[in-house]
Structures are given as structure tokens and as C-alpha cells.
């Protein structure tokens, strides 16, 4: 990094005087939303779920959802929009920064990780945007959705800390499966690092669900009871590649889809994996794992 010395741009001093001794110059601190930070947190193998927001939007052309207040510089955001209509949701090219009226807007591309999928043979539509958050992106994410009568969209913003931002995928959804007129579905095998499962259902009476044992941080956003609306449920787990179990719903739904998203992490420097109880591929004694 260069600094202006009053005459020209020059390299920053390598050492600074603290008042008692010389120390390496840490550079410039950045406000991460909570405190002053010198750098983003180093990535870990299993990025931790931090916080989320969710909302259901009916008869709206634009669905704008605030990002969590706990969001910090360098966090990974997975914004998901699910709908059931003839119009596919489209990620807005802007994030709206919270500011006194009139509302200020900050140009912002959801980076290279915007992915759209119609979850055939259902009419459920899913779009995801995965990006590393910086303060100039604003505090909310907007999606263009169908404004037709009696259609709704569910939006969730999920935040993960210490993900590997150098591995953001071009298509966050790595796999999906569907079922019709059912109250359960066998989940597909997970992937490496942290696996995020996103279940989307079309139903008039869904009010609850149960993820298999070992899933963490479940989040749900249900549509209005009695109306044929979209519902979204998410949870996280680690381990691969066997199916982690069955997602059980409390009502039979007309259409159900489960998408799988990988939250990228960074393998251990020693090249050795982490023992995961129940992982039938990477944690088997005598084959892939040796206890020391």
C-alpha cells in the first residue's frame, strides 16, 4: 500500500514507533461493522453460521430484506429468493444502504455467484447470490419478484463467518431434488466443508419441519396458513458423501424441492481431515482415518 508523503506516493514505513518500541506497521484498519479490524478473519475448514434474516412478500414487485445487524466486514452472505409464479426472481443490481430519506443507493453487483434454477418438474423457482460483504454494499439486498395477485416470495439472508472467499462458486447450487405430494424427502449427500440445505415447499397448511440429527442452525419462513404459498426452510451440516437422513414435514405439500449449497472453507494446513461422527466416507477407521 502507498501513502502520500506530501510530494509523491511512497511506500508505507515498514516499522512504526509505539511510544516504547518499534513494531511492524499493521497498515490501515477498516471498520468491520463492529470494531476496527486490520484484516478479514482467516478462513477455516467449516465456516460457522453467524446470523440470518427472512421475510415473506406477497403482491410485491421488489422484495427488499435487511441484512443482519451482526454482519461484519468479510462475512460471507448467501441471499436466497424462492417463489412460485410465471416470473423468475432476478437479483437487483443494487443494494440499498440504510440512510435518512431520501433513500441512498449503492451500486453493487452480487459478484460472480448469482444462480437461477427452476426446480423441475415443480414450478418452484430459486435464485441465490453468494458474496463477501463489504460496508459499501449497503445493509440490505433486493430481488425483483412477481407482483401477480396471490403469489408470494420468500427471501432469506444467511451469514457465515470465516469462509474462504477465494473459492466463491459461479453457481452456488451444486445439486437439487424434488418430490410431489409428500410430507418427507431423503436428503442428497452433502459436500465438502459446510453444506447448506435449502428446502422450498408449496403448501396451504405447512407449519413445521424436522431436520435429521446433526443438523445445526435451522431457519424457517412460512407463508400464510390457508393460502397456497411458498415456504422456505434451511439448515447446515458437515460430512459427505452419504445421505444425512430425511427431512420430515408436518403436512403433505403439493411440491417440495431441496437445494444443496456448499459454504467454502479452507482445508487444514497439515492436509488431514477432521473426524466427523457419521461421515461414512471421510471418517472410517482403518480406511480413511487413523487415530493417533
Mean pLDDT: 79
Total beta-strand segments: 22
Q: What is the H/E string?
A: EEEEEEEEEEEEEEEEEEEEEE
User: How far from one another are the termini?
Assistant: 45 Å
Shape estimate: flat
| DSSP helix fraction | under 10%
Largest sheet: 6 strands, antiparallel
Number of helices: 0
Structure description:
- This protein has 292 residues and is mainly beta.
- The protein has no helices and 22 strands.
- The protein has strands at residues 2-4, 9-11, 15-17, 22-24, 30-31, 36-37, 48-58, 62-66, 76-84, 90-91, 94-96, 105-107, 114-118, 124-132, 140-144, 152-161, 173-186, 194-203, 209-210, 216-221, 229-238, 246-263.
- The strands form seven sheets. Strands 17, 18, 19, 20, 21 and 22 form a six-stranded antiparallel β-sheet that branches. Strands 7-16-9-14-13 form a five-stranded antiparallel β-sheet, with no helix packed on it.
- A hairpin with a 4-residue loop joins strand 1 and strand 2 (9-11).
- Residues 92-113 have low confidence and may be disordered.
SSE order and pairing:
Blueprint: E1 2-4, E2 9-11, E3 15-17, E4 22-24, E5 30-31, E6 36-37, E7 48-58, E8 62-66, E9 76-84, E10 90-91, E11 94-96, E12 105-107, E13 114-118, E14 124-132, E15 140-144, E16 152-161, E17 173-186, E18 194-203, E19 209-210, E20 216-221, E21 229-238, E22 246-263
